[in-house]
């Protein structure tokens, strides 16, 4: 007859199964967490580009043409968009309405990549924007 009072705790197999399950969950969760962190940091860049796009759209409405060539100081003075406080934008330029930003200080999968916001005009004269660039499609903003 077996004494039930001496059977306390977990067996080695049970402990190994718990460790295996936690390891599998961590292997899935950590890369997803890193990707979401990069997307969150990219929000600063895409928000800045949205402000530039609004200013370029206003410029187009006023001048009936897109700005030909602007760097960061010209974007700030001509379009009135402040970019000096952005730590995630290495360079920014507007060329014939196309906004191109080089990313820095975000994360290894996107640092040094560019995001481009290209304008086109609709039949009603509205400005429509399309995202592209050298950045991976997974990190591009949704259309």
Keywords summarizing the entry:
single chain, 143 residues, alpha+beta, Glycoprotein, Type 4 Pilin
Describe the structure.
This protein is α+β, with helices and mostly antiparallel strands. The chain has a single domain (10-139), classed as Glycoprotein, Type 4 Pilin (2-Layer Sandwich), CATH 3.30.700. 42% of the residues lie in helices and 21% in strands. The protein has two helices and five strands; from the N terminus they run H-E-H-E-E-E-E. The chain has a five-stranded antiparallel sheet. Strand 4 and strand 5 form a beta hairpin.
Continuous helix count: 2
Give, in spatial order, the strands making up the sheet with the most strands: 1-2-3-4-5
How much strand?
15-25%
Largest sheet: 5 strands, antiparallel
What is the mean predicted local confidence, pLDDT?
87
Tell the overall outline: elongated
**CATH class annotation:** Alpha Beta
* The CATH H-level homologous superfamily: Glycoprotein, Type 4 Pilin
Helix-strand pattern: HEHEEEE
Separation of termini?
Answer: 71 Å
Low-confidence stretches: none
Oligomerization state = single chain
The second-level CATH architecture is: 2-Layer Sandwich
Question: What radius of gyration results from the CA coordinates?
Answer: 25 Å
> How many structural domains?
1
The helical percent reads 40-55%
């Amino acid at each position: 007859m077996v004494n039930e009072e001496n059977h306390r705790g977990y067996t080695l197999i049970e402990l190994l199964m718990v460790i295996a399950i936690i390891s599998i969950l961590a292997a899935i969760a950590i890369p997803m967490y890193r990707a979401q962190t990069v997307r969150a940091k990219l929000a600063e860049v895409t928000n800045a580009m949205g402000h530039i796009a609004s200013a370029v759209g206003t410029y187009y409405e006023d001048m009936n043409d897109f700005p030909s060539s602007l760097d960061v100081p010209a974007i700030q003075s001509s379009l009135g968009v402040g970019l000096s406080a952005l730590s995630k934008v290495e360079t920014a330029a507007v060329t014939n309405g196309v906004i191109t930003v080089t990313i820095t200080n975000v994360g290894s999968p996107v640092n040094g990549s560019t995001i481009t916001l290209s304008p086109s005009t609709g039949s009603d004269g509205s400005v429509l924007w399309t995202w592209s660039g050298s950045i991976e499609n997974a990190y591009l903003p949704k259309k």
